[in-house]
Amino acid sequence: MSNYAYGGGGPGQYGGGGATDIRLLPGNYDNFTSLKSRIIVAAGAGGLDSGDFGGPGGTLEGYDSQYNHGKGGTQISPGQGYVNGQFGKGGGNSGLIGGSGNGSGGSGYFGGGSSDIIDNYGGGGGSSFISGHEGCVAVNEDSPENPMTFRSGKYISVHYSGLKFEHTQMIDGQSQMFSPSGSLETGHYGNGFIRITQFPTFINSCIQNIYFSFLHSFISGFSLFIFSSY
To answer: Which InterPro entries does the annotation name (predicted)?
Structure first.
């Protein structure tokens, strides 16, 4: 993980934003087995450069950079660029700095790619994932790193552990959301965050509302709260 942003944002002159996740297995951030155990992932945005805004962190797919030089990640593949993204990491090259640098990809379920040309253009945003969310595609527990394999059929969106969430909502990094302080912001700037509110013990329902915040610029974050607001 040398030179990557915390959470897997691509390295380089203008690094991509890191992702925030909840996972079931410990290990180094980029340990493949640990990455496969993620049940929630909130994406980071692609790094900007002087000639191009990076793509915001997305929901099912990350956004391309403003002028489409860095592509966003999807549910089954990383974003393409001069350096492609990866599963859990944005694309970037730590050797490209100074006048030769460019924007790197944001991290996510799959990371975005860096700018496809070595010039002042931005990287793509990462994609996000919630186990059980419609449109998501869960990785197989026994998937190799290359080529990766994914679940299919009725439970395509459900993590291999069987843990899933219901009544979920994703908000991408170019939309309004609540900040940690309770004010509205477009995308989330700053460190990632997670908020979990427990049901009162007398409530037997397992219905959960999940709200995500995605970084618009550099570092990703999301908030998870249940029947709660700030």
So the answer is: ALK/LTK-like_GRD (IPR055163)
